[in-house]
């Protein structure tokens, strides 16, 4: 599902702020600055995010405008990777290590410090073997008209998108639902807000 | 930009924050009722002709004061079943509504979801099926824009009625009769 094919589920934004002079060239730099980068260490834990080309999440170089700027539309994607060791697997391996330690040291139970040390070492070992969970969502920005869509409607991905968008372009992306179109008529949204609830119960007779 | 600056810079949507949840529920209910009353015909902004709107194959209902749907009706024309309207007569309100929308020769299927009236699962008419990415992108974005505009027009039409005296004096009694008729059928 996305911008180019399939059913479309999006959150729409207004983009607030002036476009700087020569913005296209500036965006090449700023998108490259905030491009997705693989963590340097294979044992990196937690989230990593950045922009990628929409066509392939492995393409993170924005130098060629033709790859991501289509006339009035900027089209790219947000990639968020998260690496973590499955808790059940970590527990199971840790239990085996603790049993081995107790046997080797002829002790009934491992001290807390040893347990912690073994757990940390094991987590690093397993992190090297784990692949990250990779998520991408597309962004389409109508540069001339100042609106954008993000192909996810959940709160957390949208919060990440808004933050990285502001950090990258220095422009605010403000959620804009069809309801916001009502603000064009003065007093209408306020009048709606103060209108009471409609209840059809017991009124049909 | 610092993290603090980023937090401060994040905007919240005006009307979405301002409007209570029952506004979207009233909008969905009005669309549902009016599509049956007027055979799906809706006038949109002056000079722009009209659109056809019907409830499609899914409607999710919630109890007032709750967020999660308590009944999800699917299948062929679930909105026309006596059970669906009996639920409305019993106090349930629509939370998500899937619509079929037709303008000129273009057919859309879209779910309007939750209190934000989010556009979800929008099936756009296939104008350009293949070709280069740019062509497909321009075409699909034109269609998405049209759909967003149609939803906004419908919302404006609803809002004009909702804040008028006609809502209380004419619309609510007619909707109540419409719902009660089927409630009786469902019960009998």
Description:
The complex is a heterodimer of chains A (205) and B (188). Chain A folds into two domains: 11-84 and 133-188, no CATH class; 87-128. Chain A is α+β, with helices and mostly antiparallel strands and 205 residues long. Chain A has helices at 23-33, 87-105, 112-129, 155-169, 188-194, and strands at 11-16, 46-53, 69-70, 73-83, 133-142, 147-150, 172-175. In chain A, α2 crosses α3 (112-129). In chain A, strands 1, 2, 3, 4, 5, 6 and 7 form a seven-stranded antiparallel beta sheet that branches. The relative contact order of chain A is 0.19. Chain A is flat and about 80 Å long. Chain B is an alpha+beta fold. Chain B has one domain (19-187). In chain B, 47% of the residues lie in helices and 25% in strands. Chain B is built from six helices and six strands; from the N terminus they run αααβββαβββαα. Chain B has helices spanning 3-9, 14-18, 22-37, 82-89, 133-162, 165-187, and strands at residues 41-43, 50-63, 71-74, 92-103, 106-113, 118-123. In chain B, strands 1, 2, 3, 4, 5 and 6 form a six-stranded antiparallel beta sheet that branches. Chain B starts with a helix and ends with a helix. The model of chain B has no long low-confidence stretch (mean pLDDT 84). The chains are: A alpha+beta (205), B alpha+beta (188). At the A-B interface, β1, α4, β7 and α5 of A face α2, α3, β6, α5 and α6 of B.
């Amino acid at each position: 599902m996305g911008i180019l094919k399939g059913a479309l589920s999006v959150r729409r934004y207004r983009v607030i702020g002036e476009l700087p002079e020569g913005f296209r060239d500036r965006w090449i730099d700023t998108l490259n600055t905030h491009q997705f980068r693989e963590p340097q260490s294979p044992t990196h834990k937690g989230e990593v995010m950045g922009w990628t080309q929409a066509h392939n999440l492995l393409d993170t170089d924005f130098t060629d405008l033709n790859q991501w700027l289509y006339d009035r539309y900027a089209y790219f994607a947000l990639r968020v990777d998260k690496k973590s060791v499955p808790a059940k697997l970590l527990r199971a391996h840790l239990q085996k290590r603790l049993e081995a330690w107790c046997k080797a040291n002829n002790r009934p139970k491992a001290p807390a410090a040893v347990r912690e040390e073994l757990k940390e070492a094991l987590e690093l070992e397993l992190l090297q073997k784990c692949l990250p969970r990779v998520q991408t969502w597309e962004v389409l920005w109508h540069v001339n008209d100042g609106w954008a869509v993000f192909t996810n409607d959940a709160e957390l991905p949208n919060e990440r998108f808004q933050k990285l968008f502001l950090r990258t372009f220095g422009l605010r992306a403000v959620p804009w639902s069809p309801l916001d179109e009502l603000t064009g008529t003065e007093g209408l949204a306020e009048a709606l807000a103060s209108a009471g609830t409609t209840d059809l119960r017991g009124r049909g007779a | 930009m610092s993290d603090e600056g980023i937090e401060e810079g994040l905007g919240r949507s005006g009307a979405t924050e301002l409007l209570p949840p029952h506004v979207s529920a009233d909008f969905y209910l009005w669309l549902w009722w009016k599509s049956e009353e007027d055979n799906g015909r809706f006038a949109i902004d002056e000079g722009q002709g009209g659109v056809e709107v019907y409830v499609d194959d899914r409607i999710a209902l919630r109890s007032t004061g709750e967020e999660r749907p308590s009944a999800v009706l699917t299948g062929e024309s679930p909105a026309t079943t006596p059970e669906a309207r009996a639920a409305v007569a019993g106090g349930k309100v629509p939370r998500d509504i899937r619509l079929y929308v037709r303008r000129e020769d273009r057919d859309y299927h879209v779910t309007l979801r939750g209190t934000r009236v989010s556009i979800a699962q929008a099936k756009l008419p296939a104008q350009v099926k293949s070709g280069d990415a740019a062509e497909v992108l321009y075409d699909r974005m034109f269609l998405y824009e049209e759909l967003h505009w149609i939803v906004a027009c419908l919302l404006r039409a609803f809002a004009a009625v909702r804040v008028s005296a006609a809502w209380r004096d004419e619309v609510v009694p007619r909707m109540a009769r419409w719902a009660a008729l089927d409630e009786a059928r469902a019960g009998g």
